[in-house]
Automatic annotation (TrEMBL):
EC number assigned by the record: 3.4.11.-
Cofactor(s) it depends on: Zn(2+)
Keyword Protease: yes
Protein name per Swiss-Prot or TrEMBL: M18 family aminopeptidase
UniProt GO molecular function: aminopeptidase activity; metallopeptidase activity; zinc ion binding
InterPro entries in UniProt: Peptidase_M18 (IPR001948), Peptidase_M18_dom2 (IPR023358)
């Protein structure tokens, strides 16, 4: 198996095993520990070593992995940072979700982030996330759950009952989206189902107290296209960037300071303890470089690549792009630019990225939103403003962003990992 096929196989396994941010962080942490990183707890006192490699998590849904420089002071080496986010638009289960209508057991759900809702209909759905409970010793515990098999579906209304369905119909998130889980005679207890699920996995559960659960499509990620040049999967935005950053970190041979940060809640604004607008990185920097002047020098010598997928030009909707800035799948990573600071890219950071890409003959594309359309944003401007570090926003081009199943190019994945690897290994940024 060549390196590309091995990487794609690993990516597909990672995507399938990561239906929620909790599971994605669990997968990444396990991979990093296997590679020799040391897990630290934010509650403990740390003793960091030159060249040491460490990983921390927060809320089980955000992760930072980093390497201390081996031969230079951190204030002189700085940090080569790649940032991404672990969350994706989805349907979240409400706290009191049980619905019993016409003999059907349904769940009340809430839309998380800017999801494309139409693709959620008629899919084989399961449920996953984190559950908090009291164990037999009276202690508060939490554990991840994943029903894995299809347990729910959101059936479409037949065309015979809605003749105008193909002419455009607004989807009411409150009334159209509750999924069907089965047929019952009386209103069921959803927490009892969760307790049973935890018991099967070996947990000692007296009472389920609360949960953060999402629905997800059980269809596996897959290589498609006549030459298998495309990757189709849920949550490519932005688990693809998390995976690329992790792979580059594991593959790089660097003696400098390097860091991967994967935060949560980007799709809803990043304002949380585990989000990019929270203090997670500030807290980390204060601990790894306690003296203020040295910390400021470290940041001045640092750079961040904010990695979040970019809008590829859609062949059926080409007019939605600026004619000169329509990225194409498998034509290289995309530099994202916006004059109104929706992206953090500057001419300096853009040029640095281009120089890194040129070392391996990796083509680079650009994305600028049409001047008559609103522009989305990323963790790039937030992180850049919060910690004052040079930043570039880039991403792999993709189609169907925020759908339940998205599409990206396989060559772009491999090439972007290589650029990240070069970035981690460079002596000066």
């Amino acid at each position: 198996m060549n390196n590309k096929n091995r990487t794609l196989k690993g990516l597909i396994e990672f995507l399938n095993a990561s239906p929620t941010p909790f599971h994605a962080v669990q997968q990444m942490k396990a991979r990093l520990l296997e590679a020799g990183f040391e897990a630290l707890n934010e509650k403990d006192t740390w003793v960091l070593k030159e060249g040491g490699r460490y990983v921390i998590t927060r809320n089980d849904s955000a992760l930072v992995a980093w390497q201390m420089p081996a031969k230079r002071l951190l204030s002189e080496s700085g940090l080569r940072m790649v940032g991404a986010h672990t969350d994706s638009p989805c349907l979240r289960v409400k706290p009191n979700p049980e619905l019993h209508k016409h003999g059907y057991f349904q769940l009340g759900v809430e839309v998380y982030g800017g999801a494309l809702l139409a693709p959620w209909f008629d899919r084989d759905l399961s449920i996953a996330g984190r559950v908090s409970f009291v164990n037999e010793a009276g202690e508060l515990c939490s554990a991840l759950v994943n029903f894995e098999t299809p347990v729910a579906v959101i059936p479409s209304l037949a065309i015979h009952l809605d003749r105008e369905a193909n002419n455009g119909r607004a989807i009411n998130a409150q009334t159209f989206l509750p999924p069907v889980l089965g047929q019952v005679d009386e209103k069921p207890d959803f927490r009892a189902l969760l307790r049973d699920q935890l018991l099967v996995s070996g947990e000692e559960v007296v009472k389920v107290l609360d949960y953060e659960l999402s629905l997800y499509d059980t269809q596996s990620a897959a290589l498609i296209g006549l030459e298998q040049e495309f990757l189709a999967s849920a949550r490519l935005d932005n688990l693809l960037s998390c995976f690329m950053g992790m792979e580059a970190l594991l593959q790089s041979d660097s003696e400098e300071g390097v860091l991967l940060v994967c935060t949560d809640h980007e799709e809803v604004g990043s304002l949380s303890a585990a989000g990019a607008q929270g203090p997670m990185l500030d807290h980390l920097f204060e601990r790894i470089q306690p003296e203020a002047e040295s910390r400021n020098r470290m940041l001045a010598n640092s750079m961040m690549i904010s990695a979040d997928n970019a809008h590829a030009i859609h062949p059926n909707f080409a007019d939605k792009h600026d004619a000169n800035h329509g990225p194409i799948l498998n034509k290289g990573p995309v530099i994202k630019l916006n004059s109104n600071q929706r992206y953090a890219t500057t001419d300096i950071t853009s040029s640095q990225f281009r120089m890194l890409a040129a070392l391996d003959n990796v083509a680079v594309q650009e994305f600028v939103v049409r001047s008559d359309m609103a522009c989305g944003s990323t963790i790039g401007p937030i992180t850049s403003a919060e910690i004052g570090v040079r930043t570039i926003d880039i991403g792999v081009p993709q189609l169907a962003m925020h759908s339940i199943r998205e599409l990206a190019g396989t060559d772009d994945l491999i090439n972007t990992i290589q650029v990240f690897k070069r970035f981690f290994e460079c002596k000066q940024v």
